[in-house]
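Encode chain A's predicted structure.
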Amino acid sequence: MTNTINITDRKRTLIFINILITCIASSMLATALTTALPPIIKAFDISVTTGQWLTSGYSLAMGTMMPLTAFLITRFPTRKLYLSAIGCFILGLLLCAAAPNFQFMMFGRILQACGNGVLTSMAQVILLTIYPVEKKGSIMGWYGLSVGAAPVIAPTIAGLLVDSVGWRMIFCIAIFIMLISLVFAVFVFDNVLENVITRFDLLSFILSAFAFGGITLGIGNMGNGAFVSFKILLPLAVGCTASVFFVHRQLHLKEPFLELRVLKNKEYTLSLIGSMLLYFVMMGSSIIMPLYVQSIMGYSATLSGLVTLPGSLVMAIVSPFAGKIYDRIGIKKLFVAGALFMLTSNIGMFFITMNTSVWVASLYNTIRCAAIGCLMMPLVTWGISGVKIELTAHGTALLTSLRTIAGAIGSAVFVGIMTAVTNSSLTSYGARAPIHGLNVTFLAMALSTTVLLAVAVFLVKPGKE
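Encoded structure for chain A:
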């Protein structure tokens, strides 16, 4: 069975361009608020652990939405679903731009996450469907540039906006870009994916929401108190219990809400594990870096954004080439190189002090971005390429959902670690307690990256898969 559909090269290119515009704007909003987080926290008079939910809560809602996308993509016409997702995202942007308080803004972020969850899954399924096998690695490399570089360059742009015109302008600019994308999509998008009549299993969706939400909420609350507490253990218990029931139900349904049998494919499972570990560390560091520059070192939001700019440029260079390298030699060497780069950057951040220049931290961030460029889209392409075309939507939804949830957990866990270590070391470290908390946090990231490296070295076969 072929993995592509017959459309003209011109139509394929126009669809790809539209997807890039949409994903650049939507992906930027995943991390744009990391730089703007300190002034937003001040404006709404909330704590850091509460404020970080504007990012990790976004990822949580997006991850909860993604299992539903497998049903939506196969059930509804491509064009209508794509336009509806953009509309939902724009509505969320409008609410955030006018938000009078944290709760109102959080609701807007959830709407953005729902729209982005559908857009992200659809984009990957569409590209992997309309392009031939020999071009998938390259095209996913360019796509990876948009979804990978955009979240990294977003803090730079956000920093300039925060210091010049205020954080609300972040959403206003995104609204303008998404409106352009919406008009463009009306004229160029066609129904390029096949649809089948399937039954919506409401119980499975509810179970998936409790599973993903409970686990992420429980872990996210770890930064607010002792581990043995009601607000941590209860969500974790609910999430784990719902996960068991969800998995059991999917394995016994004739038409699963989310086909988990794709995990029987070894390459897909390894790509899923690698993607989750990558996002776990990546999203955690994207939150920590602006806090380091602004809250610990006391610099402006503009400088905070500029510190991440070199990394964005490196990712822009690496991502397309990584796709081409994958097309030629497979995943093994890319996987190992990316894991080593990320491990190096995290170990480097473990040794910085209050006297270390922020540009040294910028160098380590650049190395981390090179790792992300090596790993993000090649892992997805490698994993999905072995999945049957009729299961592509399910495989993409599961992978994107779990890696997004892993990113939300990473944000919550690493902010929690930094906060807890800083508070507990105030007596012994004094003014150096915040930087000590940062060092321990990046040590935890290094340990997580070691697991990623072990997967690449010992479990992935050499050569082109």
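The chain is about 80% helix and 0% strand.
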